[in-house]
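Q: Second attempt. The first request was missing the SMILES, so the protein and flavin-adenine dinucleotide are both included now.
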Amino acid sequence: MLLDNDVREKLSQYLQLMENDVLIKVSVADDPASHQMSEFVRELADLSAKIHVKETALARVPSFSINKVNQDTGITFAGIPLGHEFTSLVLALLQTSGYPPKIDASLVDQIKNIKGPFNFETYVSLTCHNCPDVVQALNIMSLLNPNISHTMVDGAIFKEEVEAKNILAVPSVYLNGEPFSSGRMELEEILAKLDIKPDLTGVEAKEPYDVLVIGGGPARTSSAIYAARKGLRTGLLAEKLGGQINDTFGIENFISIKYTEGPTLAANIEEHLRSYDIDVIKLQKVKTLKKADLIEIELVSGAILRSKTVIVATGARWRNINVPGEAEFKAKGVAYCPHCDGPLFKGKNVAVIGGGNSGVEAALDLAGLASHVTLLQASDKLTADEILQSRVYSKENITVITNAKTTEIFGSEKVQGLTYLDCLQNEQVKLAVDGIFIQIGLLPNTEWLQDTLDLNAFGEIVVDKYGATSIPGVFAAGDCTDCPYKQIIISMGAGANAALSAFDYLIRN
Ligand SMILES: Cc1cc2nc3c(=O)[nH]c(=O)nc-3n(C[C@H](O)[C@H](O)[C@H](O)COP(=O)(O)OP(=O)(O)OC[C@H]3O[C@@H](n4cnc5c(N)ncnc54)[C@H](O)[C@@H]3O)c2cc1C
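A: Got both inputs this time. The predicted holo structure:
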């Protein structure tokens, strides 16, 4: 039995929602991976009378496609979609059976009008929590448009392909055989990359808001919900939805939920947000903020929105180390997310740069997969919590090197190693590694506010206890501010605080 009782039970509950019959076409040979896939498909079919199975020849062996009875969908899984891809499997089955995908009607039309032919392939690892979003978005596109097909490829099974393509980060998407994208993407972002832009007609004509929230993470959610609950006309502008929690694996400190995972929390947050009357404008980056009679927000697209108050919640992003080779080898051995890309370095030598909590956690995580991990810290000691430090020093396959400033990342097609300055000996040392995980903290997303709001030396927006900034009517919350601790629950609290302050400001002005 491949499916354990828990998974079987969950699956059979979901499969009861199937509306019509589906046909799974399976392509297998006489090898262990094929035997596993045959067994998996058989177990699936045993769970619902609506699932039929037929053997066929597909491009990859083993793989299976999920189809309507009289029409192929183009959705193929080259690998067994369990782990983080379990939801992708369930959705593919339900949606193929007729259950409508939960996307805006305008997107459905846009996808149906794509000319193609577009053959997408997404290389994933089953432990990657960013991969399912891409797989599910491309499956929906494949289902809605016969000129589009999509195959999820499990890199652990198709190792030779992964090696040949030098794939060192997942999800890695190929379009018609050429690299298309790397990293998490939403459906709208995929469409934008195909040059199918969101329809912004009408944005300029929007009535001014009472509160306009800028950002896509936890802080903007609580801001927007608190503002909407006060009956304020609330707008929300986000470049990407989810924020940093999309890069977070296990979350154990979001009080009231003992354990959750970033994408699950992000999905719950979106659902909560959708239950309020909030005007959400997605995939839009803000360029400038100007105070006139109202506050004017100019988007990168050129459109201008107006609001009586604004809450900035633009958060933070991974800090780059800015040495030669970093940009060149991104996704070719230079990585930032150990949970996503760690499995691609199984049995290999890796380095982690950064001796704070995230660096040490990454080293501990990778030590379970890689043959050896070198943890490099620029200063003379690690700064991670004591408990993490003692764990890292107790691991036989982790070497900690302090006083080591990385000066270069080198390689040819992919990373071959790095050079660091041994600050004690004052000499450059070369270290041969296959992968380099950069974990040196975060940078606030506030460059666009440099000439507008008071920022501190780290570029963080200076706020008072009300979340008020240096411009009356402009408030800020979360990781983009100078609040000392950057956490989900703190950002959410700060977002609520800023919304209540905006409300207070509106009744006084
Ligand atoms: C790997 C990792 C693990 C973590 N683990 C935990 C944990 O276990 N527990 C915990 O409490 N915290 C954790 N954190 C911290 C937590 O995720 C952050 O504190 C929290 O997400 C901050 O929320 P935020 O809304 O302020 O900003 P963010 O989450 O950074 O969101 C900011 C959003 O604004 C958008 N944006 C940026 N610029 C613009 C612009 N110009 N225009 C429009 N939109 C823009 C971005 O695209 C993004 O969606 C972790 C962080 C990381 C990176």
